[in-house]
Amino acid sequence: MSTRLNPRTSRHVVGPVNDTIWRRSSEASLVIRTDFSHEEEWTRIQAAITEPQTEDEFEAYVEFVDDKAYEGVTAARLLELVPADSHERFVFLVDTEALTHPDRPILVVNLYDWVEGLEDQGKGPHYGATFRVVPEEMWSVQNNLSLANMDWEEFADNVDEDGIFRGFE
């Protein structure tokens, strides 16, 4: 199966770890690969992420980061890597679980939680929180969180018992 990337909405970023991915002018959300032992599944998951999922052809607007410097990065480690002045609100991590679980649940990491009156703005109680999402629903999470149409909690509160968001019922 070949990867179909829509040049309008998706692109690959390959290179050494540096601040450039955190200081982009792009409004696309980052999808960072952290497992490099499942090449074919990585190709499949990219195709699933970029495939239009609705009658109106909504799709996730993403940039894929395929850089071995991120190998094994966890949500906790990611929080240490993101510069304080980054404008990213959330990131998708494609880890071993995403590449080996039958539903391919991708980890979503919250990088910004605004709380009125908080001294360290952006690092409220949901900063660093995670949930998983199936590729077929990434468009919903990415589109709505990016545009602030919905809040983090609206997705996190609607995960199944296994912690995976599979859509709203």
Detail the topology: elements first, then pairings.
Blueprint: E1 10-13, E2 29-33, H1 39-50, E3 62-65, H2 75-81, E4 90-94, H3 96-100, E5 106-110, E6 130-133, H4 138-146, H5 152-156, E7 164-165
Parallel strand pairs: 1-3, 2-3, 2-4, 6-7
Antiparallel strand pairs: 4-5, 5-6
Description:
The structure is a single chain. This protein is an alpha/beta fold and 169 residues long. The protein has five helices and seven strands, in the order ββαβαβαββααβ. Strands 1-3-2-4-5-6-7 form a seven-stranded mixed sheet. It is globular. The model is unreliable at 1-16 (pLDDT under 50).
The total domain count is 1
Element order, helices and strands? EEHEHEHEEHHE
CATH topology: Rossmann fold
Report strand order across the widest sheet: 1-3-2-4-5-6-7
First-residue to last-residue Cα separation = 31 Å
- Which consecutive residue ranges, at least 5 long each, have pLDDT under 50? 1-16
CATH architecture designation: 3-Layer(aba) Sandwich
Question: What is the class in the CATH system?
Answer: Alpha Beta
Number of helices: 5
> What gross morphology would you assign?
globular
Determine the CATH superfamily: Anticodon-binding domain
Average pLDDT reading: 84
Structural class: alpha/beta
Number of strands: 7
The radius of gyration over CA amounts to 15 Å
Organism: Micromonospora pisi
InterPro entries: DUF6924
Domain DUF6924: 29-168
Protein name: DUF6924 domain-containing protein
